[in-house]
Amino acid sequence: MSALDELQDAARTVATRLGTTIVSIGRDGRGSGVVIADGQVLTCAHNLRDRTTQVTFADGRTTQGEVLAADTDGDLAVLAVDTAGATPAEWAPAPAGDGQVVFGAARGQGLRVTFGLVSGTDRTFRGPRGRRVTGSVEHTAPLARGSTGGALADAQGRVVGINTLRLGDRFALAQPVDHAFQDRVARLAAGEAPTRRRLGVALAPPHVTRRLRASVGLAERAGLLVRGVEDGSPAAEAGIEAGDLLVTAGDRSLASADDLFEVLQALGDGASLTLGVVRGAEERTVEVRFGAAEIA
C-alpha cells in the first residue's frame, strides 16, 4: 500500500469514527463542538453568546444546549444537551508530538476533515479575556470558519486536541488532550467553573496605548491603558475610568497584562490592592478592594 493510500484510509477512519461526534455550535455555525459523554458537548468558550446555544448534529437534528460550566479565560465550555446516542470522543493516550500526522474535524455544511502535521508544541495564545494559555499544539491542518471547538485527531480517529485558534499564517492552535486538560474538562462537566480574581477592566494593546498618548501630546509611558470599565466591578468601585493608565500594582510595575494577572491571582479573598494610576498628566494612587474570587 502506498503512502497516499494509507493517508486516504486514515482520513476515512477519522471521518467514520468522528462522524456523529462532531457537532455545529450556534445558528450561524460559528463554531464546532465534540460530544464527550452522553448529554455533554465540549466547545470553545468564545463560540458562545449566551447561556444557551443551538447545537446541530450529524443527522441534521438541532436542539438547544445549556452551559454546564465555562472557563472563559481558558476558552473551554461544556454544554448539557440531548446527544441522542451520538458517539462520544475517545481521548488519545498521549498528546500530539512534533511532526505527527493529524486531522482536523469540524462540522459546517456537513463533516469536514482536513490533513496536516504538528508543526510545533508548547505554543501560547491569549484567551478571550487576554490571559495567557500555554502548552498548545501548532498544526497545519486547514481550519475553515466555524472549525474552532472541533477536534484535532490522530490517524486512528482519537482526539489529541481541541482546535482553538486559527492563525493568520494558515497555521492553527489546539489545546492538547493531556491529563491536565482532561481534568479541566471533567470539572466543567461536573458544573465546576474555575474562579479567578478580576479587576473588571478592558485593556488596550501596547501599540494602541502609545499611539493614543502621542495623539494628545502625552509622553510615552509604560503601563496598561484602560479602554473600558465593567459596571459594579472592583475597578468601577475604586473610581478607575476609561483612559486611565495603570502603571503599578502594589510594588510591581505593569509592563504587560500578564503582570496584572499574576498580581491579581496572588490576592486572597477580602484583599485590597494599591494601583498607581496616571490620568492625563496627573499621577495618583487608588485602593481597590476585592471580595471572593469570581467564577470565570
Features of the shown structure:
296 residues, alpha+beta, Thrombin, subunit H, 3 domains, 6-stranded antiparallel barrel, 41% strand
Summarize the structure.
The protein has 296 residues and is of the alpha+beta class. The chain has five helices and 20 strands. The termini are far apart.
The portion of residues assigned to helices is 10-25%
Number of structural units classed as domains: 3
What is the multimeric organization of the chains shown?
single chain
The order of strands across the largest sheet is 1-2-3-6-5-4
User: Can you tell me the residue ranges where pLDDT is under 50 for at least 5 consecutive residues?
Assistant: none
CATH superfamily of the largest domain: PDZ domain
Radius of gyration: 22 Å
Q: Your description of this structure?
A:
With 296 residues, the protein is an alpha+beta fold. The protein folds into three domains: 3-80, Beta Barrel (Thrombin, subunit H); 101-177, Thrombin, subunit H (Beta Barrel), CATH 2.40.10; 196-295, Pdz3 Domain (Roll), CATH 2.30.42. The chain is 17% helix and 41% strand. The protein is built from five helices and 20 strands. 37% of the residues are buried. The model has no long low-confidence stretch (mean pLDDT 91).
Present the secondary structure layout:
Blueprint: H1 3-17, E1 22-25, E2 31-37, E3 40-43, E4 52-56, E5 62-71, E6 76-80, E7 101-108, E8 110-126, E9 132-139, E10 151-153, E11 159-166, E12 172-176, H2 179-189, E13 195-196, E14 201-203, H3 206-215, E15 224-229, H4 234-237, E16 245-249, E17 252-253, H5 257-265, E18 272-279, E19 282-289, E20 294-295
Antiparallel strand pairs: 1-2, 1-4, 2-3, 3-6, 4-5, 5-6, 7-8, 7-10, 8-9, 9-12, 10-11, 11-12, 13-20, 14-15, 15-16, 16-17, 16-18, 18-19
